[in-house]
Amino acid sequence: MATINSTTFGGDTLEIIAFRLHDQEFCVKTTTIREIRGWAPSTPIPHAPADVIGVMNLRGSVIPIIDLAYKLGMKSTVANERSAIVVAEVHNMVIGMLVDRVSDILTIPSSQVQPVPEVSASFDKTFSEGIIANENGMICFLNLAKMFKGSDLEDLAA
């Protein structure tokens, strides 16, 4: 079974934050995460992209809130009391990502991250760094820098 070279992740271990969207588990590197907040309603923005729920005030800074499930091609998340906002910094911009719930913060060996298999020629796997198989199932490792291109975030900040 092929593994991703640990130099891709810069070390022997990775610290990740795992979260759920619908019935699937995803994770990102903790180094991109600023904080985790409970769900609070956001203010909608007219003519915003479909994946932008709205904006919220984060200690005096207005940040966009992204429906991460919708961004990944899933049905939109319906926020509830268990939902969370994962606040991340991507391309020097701060964004909030709506998730169903945060599952865990883990330290894993970087060798545990396996490449995303080729599904079809039209399959776009650029949002994913790889797949982590553990005793509880599979976790899709997301690449926020590729998901949110710098120009997309500049449009939100405008």
From TrEMBL:
Gene3D superfamilies: CheA-289, Domain 4 (2.40.50.180), SH3 Domains (2.30.30.40)
GO CC terms: cytosol
GO BP, sorted A to Z: chemotaxis; signal transduction
Cross-referenced InterPro entries: CheW (IPR039315), CheW-like_dom_sf (IPR036061), CheW-lke_dom (IPR002545)
UniProt xrefs under Pfam families: CheW
Taxonomic superkingdom: Bacteria
Domain CheW-like: 13-153
Protein's UniProt name: Purine-binding chemotaxis protein CheW
Native organism: Peteryoungia ipomoeae
